[in-house]
């Protein structure tokens, strides 16, 4: 559970900076930040499930 | 026509922008605060500070080139060190104080800490460029 927490913290902090550095109106940048955060979390879960089915050596 | 457009775009970068860039690198968020972009500076700088301090807290370590490396192995230290140095004075203070340069590979969160420290530096480069662009008039 703690791993998920740190992954979410990482995604949130990175998304904040990406959103601030992006171009566009304030709303567009906010939406971009939310999108980056959601993508980080979604891809992490996807990769987690893919790795779950790969047997460890 | 294209040459004329290029000439029109050739606007000198004000020296203040370089100062802002330097301040933004040295202290995360300072570049925006110097330009009275309070919220932007607090959010961007705050994110970098939190990420860096969390990285240290999780047991991550900062990379440095000691001169002991042999052959190509220097690149395995140099490249992550460039990322770490992105946090500016925080890296230098840690280096002087000897904090964060010891490896704690036995900790479960060690790799998380390393990632947080590396990405904090890289994000601060991004924040620095953003502050520089604002000061140079290239960004609203």
SSE inventory with pairings:
The complex is a heterodimer of chains A (about 55) and B (about 140).
Chain A (H helix, E strand, L loop, with lengths): L1 H20 L4 H27 L5
Chain B lengths: L1 H8 L5 H12 L3 H5 L3 H20 L15 H13 L3 H9 L12 H26 L5
Characterise the protein shown here.
The complex is a heterodimer of chains A (57) and B (140). With 57 residues, chain A is an all-alpha fold. Chain A contains two helices and no strands. In chain A, helix 1 runs antiparallel to helix 2. The longest helix of chain A has 27 residues, at 26-52. Chain B is built from seven helices and no strands. The model of chain B has no long low-confidence stretch (mean pLDDT 90). Chain B has helices spanning 2-9, 15-26, 30-34, 38-57, 73-85, 89-97, 110-135. Chains A and B meet through helix 1 of A and helix 4 and helix 7 of B.
At a glance:
The complex is a heterodimer of chains A (57) and B (140). Chain A has 57 residues and is an all-alpha fold.
User: In sequence order, what are the helices and strands of chain A, one letter per element?
Assistant: HH
Rg of chain B, Å, rounded: 18 Å
Low-confidence stretches of chain B: none
Give the fraction of residues assigned to helices of chain A.
over 70%
| Beginning-to-end CA distance, first to last residue of chain A | 24 Å
Mean pLDDT of chain A, rounded to whole units?
A: 93
**Main β sheet profile of chain A:** none
